[in-house]
Write a structure and sequence with these properties.
alpha/beta; 3-stranded antiparallel sheet; TIM Barrel; 8-stranded parallel barrel; 12 helices
Length: about 400
């Protein structure tokens, strides 16, 4: 039986994956933070046939060299992209290393409602000590501690999405009831460093849970929908994809940095031009491709036997996205190696993922009285006044 077609994602943060990509951008530097810039790149990605886009983020500037660049928050950009597109999925990068999982949950629930079920979440981490100072929080240091915060934050966010059952909202004018408090649940989470009580203040997202993507090994496989994998070689990347699937993650996406030949310059010439200003550091968890569009198509055909999709990180968005749109994706579609998302579908549907049932609706939660008590005093106001308390033991 042939494998399902690849699903395609592209990173749209800034001007590209290279730190000096802004020097080759097709727009004035000041246009980077304008709505027309993000609308233009999102429209290009949607028209090309990408399933979804990702938007990198951090509380810190994206560069620390001679040319630091500001950015608009990923969720704010994602909401704008969702409003200016109709098919494209949107997955911002958010870290719960220092941010409150409650706020992350509310932001992503709201995004899923606004996008009619086209949202996802790339689970990030804040490794720079400067992030702790910016948040005013104790430093989380070391891979184990960072993984712990990502794991606990993800569990809280998932539970908050589940805290409203699908039929909790009644909206009955005849009975003057807005919601059924018995279907609103306190999550009562206790982790190693903090605890959280209370339901969400946002009704359950249209997808049940927005699609969760995370670097393979960062959090338990059972908590994610898509594992992001990569290695220095194509064989290593394929093996990483197989390992993620064997661990129980439903889908594996290869992360590939791409620098493509253009009509005027080769990829190596373009990289050399940018290397005069800043180095493009290689990452061991990402594959890097440099060369022609045909070569990239062949690479993706090879990887399609081992992964379910790819997330491409272009060297320079204005240059590489055009080549991807004209030469790479059309060839993938003609050869049936990749599939376009269908109009009117959620991101979960586009990825072939089932809609999850709330864990409280499955009957595993028996503390209904406590859950109802944690809601606001009146049924009409419980949706906006639900209590949530985080007690830290750091």
């Amino acid at each position: 039986m042939p494998r399902p077609a690849l699903r395609l994602a592209v990173e749209l943060d800034g001007d590209g994956a290279h730190p000096a990509a802004w020097r080759r951008a097709a727009h004035a530097p000041g246009d980077l933070l304008t709505p027309r810039r993000i609308a233009r790149t999102a429209a290009a990605a949607e028209n090309a046939g990408f399933t979804f886009v990702t938007l990198e983020d951090s509380i810190l500037p994206p560069a620390a060299g001679a040319d630091p660049v500001g950015r608009i928050g990923s969720v704010e950009r994602a909401a704008f992209v969702a409003a200016s597109t109709s098919v494209l999925g949107v997955a911002p990068v958010l870290a719960t290393t220092y941010a409150e999982p409650f706020h992350v949950s509310s932001q992503l629930s709201s995004l899923d409602h606004l996008s009619a079920g086209r949202s996802g979440w790339v689970v990030g981490v804040e490794e720079d000590p400067a992030a702790a100072r910016a948040w005013g929080r104790p430093l989380v240091e070391g891979p184990d501690a960072l993984a712990r915060e990502a794991r606990d934050g993800l569990r809280v966010v998932r539970d908050l999405w589940d805290s409203w059952e699908d039929d909790a909202v009644i909206r009955s004018v005849s009975t003057s009831r807005y919601l059924d408090r018995k279907r609103l649940h306190a999550i009562d989470f206790t982790g190693e460093t903090y605890s959280v009580k209370g339901p969400s203040i946002v009704p359950r997202p249209p997808q049940g849970r927005p699609v969760i993507l995370a670097r393979h090994g960062l959090v338990p496989a059972g908590l994610t929908d898509v594992a992001l994998v990569g290695a220095a070689t194509a064989a290593g990347t394929g093996a990483a994809g197989e390992a993620a699937k064997a661990a129980g993650v439903p889908l594996a996406f290869a992360e590939i940095e791409v620098a493509l030949d253009t009509p005027r310059e080769t990829a190596r010439e373009r990289i050399a031009d940018l290397e005069r200003y800043s180095p493009w550091e290689e990452r061991p968890d990402r594959l890097r491709y440099t060369g022609s569009a045909d070569g990239l198509v062949s690479l993706l055909a090879e990887l399609s036997a081992h992964v379910d999709g790819v997330r491409l990180l272009p060297l320079v968005l204005d240059e590489d996205l055009a080549v991807l749109s004209r030469l790479v994706l059309p060839e993938l579609f003609v050869r049936r190696l990749a599939a376009r998302p269908l109009p009117g579908t959620t991101l979960r549907t586009s990825l072939g993922l089932p809609r999850p049932v709330s864990r409280f609706a499955s009957g595993t939660d028996t503390d209904t009285d406590t859950a109802a008590a944690a809601a606001a005093g009146s049924e009409a106001g419980a949706g906006t006044a639900a209590a949530l308390v985080r007690e830290e033991t750091r």
